[in-house]
Structure prediction request, 221 residues.
Amino acid sequence: MDQDRWTAVDRYVEGLLAPHDAALDASLEASEEAGLPAIQVSPPQGKLLHLLAKSIGATAILEFGTLGGYSTIWLARALPDDGHLITLEADSAYAAVAAANIERAGLGDVVDLRVGVALDTLPELADEDAGPFDLTFIDADKEHSPEYFAWALDRSRPGGLIVADNVVRAGELADEQSADPKIRAQRRLHEMLAAEPRVEATTIQTVGGKGYDGFAIALVV
Ligand SMILES: C[S@@+](CC[C@H](N)C(=O)[O-])C[C@H]1O[C@@H](n2cnc3c(N)ncnc32)[C@H](O)[C@@H]1O
Prediction:
């Protein structure tokens, strides 16, 4: 098994089950033109996020890491008319591309895009009494995934989901000797998930167009 095979299967699944419409296509084209890194979720992963949000009837979503708004669009499309999504992005140039992509997708009224380092934005959201959230997607700077999880958990409703991306990191998650801060953070996140009585969680390894990685998924009980 190799990367070419994983990419081919992702394309097959995308073609049948997660096809792009004009707005999703345009979001990736605009992101590429603006020089954003192509580190968004894959189409099948975007569809997974969409299905998870729909399956719990999510009306309030929090996202860490907007990039060009690709996952934002998948998630926001799962919301009912009165739903809303707050997405946090540190890079103002990326956020400008995302804002245009989100607007083009007709989601400008649904999505609240906050520009700034998430750890600085979170106290503002707390002051505004933001939440409770039905679904949180953690996909920003991986060193802070545990802090984002802790913040989101305190503002999640029972029955809600917290999903963290890129937790497996080509298998390095299993390396207890790793000095890489991103790996150490994912291991700390897993220790939190194991010890936290308010969630039931698991991690699923994934392969696909984005290589070998995985999602942690926590159900707030
Ligand atoms: C993997 S990308 C997000 C991809 C996006 N969720 C998608 O799938 O379409 C990570 C994003 O997090 C942003 N980011 C990095 N550090 C951040 C921080 N401290 N606060 C908020 N956003 C941050 C990066 O600029 C980048 O756009």
About this structure: The pocket of S-adenosylmethionine is lined by residues 39-41, 65-67, 70-71, 88-91, 94, 117-118, 139-141 (CB under 6 Å).
